[in-house]
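so my prof wants the structure for this chain in the tokens format not the other one, which i didnt know existed until like an hour ago. anyway here's the sequence
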Amino acid sequence: MTDKKILLVAACALLDSDNRILLAQRPEGKAMAGLWEFPGGKVEPGETPEISLIRELHEELGVVATVPCLAPLTFASHSYENFHLLMPLYICRRYEAPPALGSGNGRENQALKWVRARDLKNYDMPEADIPLIPHLVDLLG
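here's what i got, hopefully its the right format
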């Protein structure tokens, strides 16, 4: 039994036309700064994970997605020191993105990079994200 708060965070493997996955680097001043992660964020009260992702993708990246375009793939369940993270991971292939998405920076000035699934292991990622990589490799090669 644990007294840790459960934090629900939704994440998205946003794919480009070459089946590469978009990673965002956590900016300075945030917890786990410098680590690469899948776009997404905390599910706010009253939101479903899908609605949260639609909001976060737009706020962070200017990406417009809809619920039917988000396909659940797997989830992470990981205990950090002060909380337990539960994170569903969705795949999104259909979305509208601003031209700036290819430029390497998001709306929150975070670095962005398009990465092949098999190369995700070469990026420093939060501990909770690492078990998600084999699922993406199985799906995308």
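also thought this was worth mentioning. The helical segments are 49-61, 133-140.
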